[in-house]
Amino acid sequence: MENHTNQLIVKGINEGLMLILPDGEWEVVCSDIKERINSQSTFFKGADVYIDVASRDLRVSEIADLRDLFGSFEIRMRGLLSFSEITQKNAKSLGLDISMPQKRIKKGKKPDALNPNEGSAFLVQKNVRSGIRIEKEESIVIVGDVNPGAEIISCGSVFVWGKIKGKITAGANGNEQAVVGALFIENSQISIAGIMRIFTKQSQNSNGSAPLILKIQNGEIVADNIKS
Predict the structure, then answer these.
(1) What residues contact 200, with CB distance under 8 A and at least 6 apart?
(2) The pLDDT value given to residue 226
(3) What CATH number is given to the structural domain containing 29?
(4) In angstroms, rounded to a whole number, what is the distance separating the alpha carbons of residues 147 and 2?
(5) Same structural domain, 88 and 125
(6) Which of 71, 116, 128, 133 is the least crowded, having the fewest Cβ atoms under 10 Å away?
(7) Which pLDDT value is given to residue 181?
(8) Is 187 inside any structural domain?
């Protein structure tokens, strides 16, 4: 997800449009959305939209009103992205996606967790920007940051030699041996083999420059040597 400001941001994504809502009073934000759509009605008409509200807590009625607002302009609200568990729960109750849709990865042989001395990995040597989704069956190594609104999906492990502020899915085909590694993790949703954990504050390894390693243990995601 994006760092939020006092301005409504509209971005084109593969699935349609992403609206990143500004901070401020909810009534004012909704008024800004209506004004923006009115000024660009041809652009928005018939679009599928995903809404990023960051950590804002929204009631079911507020989400439903927002969906109805878009519907009045013939715009389909498909999903609501938020770090707030309250907002996620309420959005799901209305049948909305709470994460960006992803292609189904076929179940097959589970790749080994990434070992630097064995096998192969998909290497990305740059920051992964908002709206970008990388999906691979092999493990993924990123030399750079995973920015808010970016998504990484792997059947193996995911290592980020930088900061994770986006969404990471490792072990996408059920591989419980997969791990996620990063130098820093903040405001991120991490999933391993279908088990999810949300990080709302910056975390790093207590051993300074060493990466923080996330893995499944006793049915939940745990972090080795975490320092928050």
Answers:
(1) 55, 83, 187
(2) 54
(3) 3.30.750
(4) 8
(5) no
(6) 116
(7) 92
(8) yes
Cα–Cα nearest to 194, from 155, 136, 148, 160: 155
Q: Is residue 61 part of a domain?
A: yes
Residue type, 173: N
- The answer to whether residues 67 and 156 belong to one domain is no
Round to whole Å and give the CA distance between 54 and 80.
10
Pairing of strands 151-154, 121-124: unpaired
The whole domain housing 76 covers 9-93
In the block, residue with structure tokens 């500004």: 22
pLDDT value of residue 111: 43
Strand-pair partners of 170: 192
Residue numbers of the chain with a pLDDT score lower than 70? 1-6, 100-120, 201-210, 225-228
- Yes or no: say if 190 and 180 are a contact pair by the CB < 8 Å rule: yes
Does this model's pTM top 0.85? no
Residues 191 and 215: their CA atoms lie apart, in Å, by: 10
